[in-house]
């Protein structure tokens, strides 16, 4: 399976990088070309945006039921699409905006879209999109996105400052591409993530695991990739367990989504010696 599992992931990861770079450039150039008053407003804008982002990210720590999580994820795709359409329409209301004005507009829509993306990113390794067999829906989504782009650019050519309008129409077409994920998910394409399980093969007359590895990173368990047992009984490597835990005291199993409360460090989780023994025996064969 290709990772990330959603089309939206690729677009929004690029969006995050572009937004950060544009913010740094604006922060450097604003006091030079626009003066201290505009620079002060930019700092206040960044401060308010940072507080808002922090509050929204904190709210994502809540764990939803499987049904609500899927609804929330599908809605996130739809809202990112609406965010892209709104940006395309908004630029027609501000066609004469200068570069700083364009930055404020794009930064606002990019931050909103990125916050919606955090909800998508949270569900990686939990859900995945099945695009195969849904070519009609995909074709319709591509057709709508393409027609919206052509219409936006055609309309933008009528304005005196064509650059801003055409840029917004082109750039935010990547956002409206989330319509594909929204439609495929709405028509049953959003499914539980299926990690690569241990395959069994016949070795020496006994059934042995041909691959004993972490279901997240697919790395084989070893003394460096230490297998740790979660409360639900599933095993993941120590590195992935640490990444899933983050700054919290709990880990959500990527296979069954059951939570494991970690008391102390990741080292407190039981080490799966049985898996290591099997891995060692396979290496000896």
Topology, please?
Blueprint: H1 7-33, H2 36-59, H3 66-93, H4 99-122, E1 127-129, H5 135-156, H6 162-171, H7 173-176, H8 178-189, E2 190-192, E3 200-203, E4 206-209, E5 227-229, E6 235-237, H9 238-245, E7 250-252, E8 259-261, H10 273-284
Antiparallel strand pairs: 1-2, 3-4, 5-6, 7-8
Helix pairs in contact: 1-2, 1-4, 2-4, 3-4, 3-6, 3-8, 5-6, 5-8
Description:
With 285 residues, this protein is mostly helical. The chain folds into two domains: 7-192, no CATH class; 200-284, Zinc/RING finger domain, C3HC4 (zinc finger) (Herpes Virus-1, 2-Layer Sandwich). It is built from ten helices and eight strands. Strand 3 and strand 4 (206-209) form a beta hairpin. The radius of gyration is 24 Å and the shape is globular. Pfam families: zf-RING_5. Keywords: Membrane, Metal-binding, Transmembrane, Transmembrane helix, Zinc, Zinc-finger. This is RING-type domain-containing protein. It comes from Caenorhabditis briggsae.
In short:
The protein is mostly helical and 285 residues long.
């Amino acid at each position: 399976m290709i990772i990330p599992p959603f089309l939206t992931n690729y677009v929004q990861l690029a969006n995050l990088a572009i937004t950060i770079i544009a913010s740094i450039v604006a922060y450097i150039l604003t006091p030079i070309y626009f003066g201290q008053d505009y620079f002060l407003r930019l700092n206040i804008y960044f401060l308010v945006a940072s507080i808002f982002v922090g509050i929204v990210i904190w709210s994502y720590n809540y764990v939803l039921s499987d049904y609500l999580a899927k609804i929330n994820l599908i809605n996130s795709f739809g809202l990112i699409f609406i965010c892209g359409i709104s940006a395309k329409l908004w630029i027609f209301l501000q066609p004469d905006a200068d570069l700083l004005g364009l930055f404020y507009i794009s930064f606002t829509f990019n931050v909103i879209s990125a916050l919606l993306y955090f909800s998508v990113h949270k569900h990686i390794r939990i859900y995945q999109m099945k695009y195969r067999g849904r070519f009609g829906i995909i074709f319709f989504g591509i057709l709508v996105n393409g027609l919206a782009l052509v219409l936006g650019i055609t309309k933008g050519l009528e304005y005196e400052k064509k650059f801003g309008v055409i840029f917004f129409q082109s750039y935010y077409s990547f956002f409206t591409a989330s319509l594909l994920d929204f439609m495929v998910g709405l028509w049953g394409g959003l499914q539980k993530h299926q990690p690569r399980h241990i395959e069994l093969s016949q070795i020496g007359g006994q059934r042995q695991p041909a691959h004993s590895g972490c279901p997240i990173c697919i790395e084989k368990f070893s003394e460096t990739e230490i297998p740790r047992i979660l409360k639900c009984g599933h095993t993941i490597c120590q590195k992935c367990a640490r990444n899933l835990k983050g700054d919290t005291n709990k880990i959500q199993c990527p296979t069954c989504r059951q939570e494991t409360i970690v008391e102390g460090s990741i080292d407190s989780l039981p080490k799966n010696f049985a898996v290591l023994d099997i891995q060692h025996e396979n290496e000896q064969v």
